[in-house]
Amino acid sequence: MFRHVLVALLLFCVVAPLQAVEPLRLGLNYPSTGNYKSEGLELRRGALLAIDQINSQGGVLGRPLQLISLNSAARAEKATANVERFAAQNVHMIFGGANSEEALAAGQRARELGLLYFPTLAYANEITGHDGHRHLFRESNSAWMSAKVLGQYLSWHMPNRRYHYISLDDAWGASMEQALREATKSRDRARHGYSKIAAHGARRSDYLTALKKAAASEADMLVIVLLGQDLVQTMRLANDMGLGKRMQIIAPNLTQSIVEQAGPLVMEHVIGTEAWNWQVPKLEKSVEGQAFVDEFIRQHQAYPGSTAATAYGIVRQWAAAVQRAGSADSEAVIAALENHHYRLLKDEQYWRDFDHQNVQTIYAVRVKNRSEIMQDRFKQDYFTIIHRMAGEEAAPGLDDWQQERGDDLTLQ
Q1: Beta-carbon contacts of residue 226 (< 8 Å; ≥ 6 apart)
Q2: What is the C-alpha separation between 141 and 138, in angstroms, rounded?
Q3: Do both 96 and 77 map to the same domain?
Q4: Are residues 22 and 45 both part of a single domain?
Q5: Same domain, yes or no, for 228 and 248?
Q6: Which CATH number goes with the domain that contains 173?
Q7: Secretion signal: which residues (predicted)?
Q8: What burial class does residue 20 get, using C-beta atoms within 10 Å of its C-beta: 0-12 exposed, 13-18 middle, 19+ buried?
């Protein structure tokens, strides 16, 4: 009895001071409604797992982390307004978002307020390219990086094909299509046709019109540069039309939640890229990565996707940088992040100093057969990794970045 009381007192002595001090607040700008709400749930789960682990180990600089979440609905204006609200609640950094427009707008406002911004699910090259700045760090890969690994795989295994593109009419859609055209030598728009889908307010008829145009072409490769419900609805229509039987469908940025929403049968054999999935820790022999997978499964009875992993990694990396810097001040954390190499959920990654892009291995994946997926215990083992490219090879080099930036060759 005395032993139990002593243990309880010791735990109280450790936990009570942590609860008594002012927390370090993190702002999660995430879509809890709208086209990307499934991705938003993944972001929140990944972030909370990281925060719980850090707090159980004593917090950061003796202070607990506290998550403040606001719905961005995947809209730039709402995400920007949320940055103002986060600042009023004295957050120390902001992360999240479901598209590149959010990242560009909210990141710029965070910069004006002296706050760090870590976008998620934001792949446009401009984010760490032309529009990059000191207060923005991107953990996820860029369109360029996805295009490089896809382009290499396709040129090796499916050379001399005819492409047709259906792309979102926004910054990510434009940069992804351009990068993939370059990587696959499908630059000739007369031969390799295209359609654009409105960034907001697209209807079923818009997706159908674009797919009918693709079906009428002579293309044997259909690239669907869409995300969220735009991709889900387009894939369902493409399946109804039987396009997957006569064309190889490519969705450059795949996520676990997309396959879940569209359905494994609809997504069978689709090729895309991911920076991480739950099989990667075993592939890369990452002990911490496997621990993350195991704990996520324990809590949610489901595999973590790349979206959850991104949020988890951002929180862990920011917290580690604060610990190294001895301060949560933005400038101190920037200095602690730049050129920092680390291993967390897979092999080595690092934050580049000149553009604040996270350099990491990127994987090309193919969605498995539905019958194979249904044999899995959670019916979530969606992807086969078909190609792997090291981050240094996938990411644009300094010369490419300087050419895009023009005269503005330092982050401000």
Answers
A1: 166, 167, 168, 173, 197, 234, 251
A2: 7
A3: yes
A4: yes
A5: yes
A6: 3.40.50.2300
A7: none
A8: exposed
- The pLDDT score that the predictor gives to residue 1 is 47
For 56-115, the pLDDT digits (tens) are 999 999 999 999 999 999 999 999 999 999 999 999 999 999 999 999 999 999 999 999
Q: What domain range is 230 assigned to?
A: 144-274+362-394
Cα separation, 222 vs 148, whole angstroms: 17
Tell me the torsion sign for CA atoms 278, 282, 285, 291.
positive
Cα 164–Cα 165–Cα 170 angle in degrees, nearest 5: 170
Residues facing 71 on adjacent strands: 30
What three-state secondary structure class fits 131? coil
CB 254 within 8 A of CB 273: yes
- Residue 390 sits in the same domain as residue 374: yes
DSSP alpha helix (H) spans, 338-386: 370-373
Residue pLDDT, tens place only, 106-141: 999 999 999 999 999 999 999 999 999 999 999 999
Residues 87-119 as b/e (b if ≥16 CB within 10 A, e otherwise) read beeebbbbbbbbbbbbbbbbbbbbbebebbbbb
How many domains in the chain? Answer: 2
Side-chain half-sphere of 198: how many Cα atoms within 13 Å? 8
Tell me the pLDDT band of 20, cut-offs 50, 70 and 90: confident
Residues 257 and 386 in one domain: yes
Q: Which residues contact 98 (CB under 8 A, 6 or more apart)?
A: 30, 31, 35, 36, 39, 40, 72, 74, 120, 121, 122, 227, 228
What H or E segment, with its residue span, contains residue 342?
A: strand 341-343
Distance (Å, rounded) from C-alpha 71 to C-alpha 82?
8
| pTM, two decimal places | 0.93
pLDDT at site 406: 87
